[in-house]
Design a protein that fits this description.
With 229 residues, this protein is α/β, with parallel strands linked by helices. The protein contains eight helices and seven strands; from the N terminus they run E-H-E-H-E-H-E-H-E-H-E-H-H-E-H. The chain has a seven-stranded mixed beta sheet with strand order 3-2-1-4-6-5-7, with helices on both faces. The radius of gyration is 17 Å and the shape is globular.
Amino acid sequence: MKRVSVIVPAYNEAEWIVPTLSAIRRRLACDELIVVDDGSRDQTAALAEEWADRVIRHPVNLGKGAALQTGWRQSGGEVVLFLDGDLRESAGEANSLLAPVVNDECDMAIAVLPTLGRKVGLGLAKGLARGGIRALTGFSPEAPLSGQRAVKRQVLERIGQFEKGFGIEVGLTIEALRRGYRITEVPVPFSHRQTGNDWTGYRHRGKEFIEIGKALGKKWWEGVRWTRT
């Protein structure tokens, strides 16, 4: 049986982190649970100490990509499961995401979350991510921005450095496909906090759109360089 490491990046998740970690502990078949506190200003790290095998603290906020990088590099599992810190009880549904990777049916499994009852945002970031991945790899993902992923360690080792910020998911997908790894999307009934249709929400999605665009531009240029060499 493959060893499984769960990595939970967290930034100011004091309200959500305990129910998330509790669900992981009670319902997932994992060998280690690592929380990377990415410079939180609340009690996230202190609350996580009771549930996690390790809590790694960044002194300042470095972004999700950096938190994931820190976590998996200090883990020991043959399969690494990335779960957000705000999933609460739904984090316990991740066994269905792990299964195809543990059973060698694919090298990376990406969770497709249920459709929301209300529309949030204009879908521009998701559309850009899907179109960019399709243009660069031929693969058209249903959930291009899903951060809930199970990945074989060998995939992460070959990819090496992650993209920073909101480009992390797009970068992981493109790099895995370029190296010939198998990706499967899996419907999983996860639920997490959503940004609203207000100024804060639109500012968040605007930043997300810009960073995804930068990541895609970088991946396009890297592809051009590889073709030339």
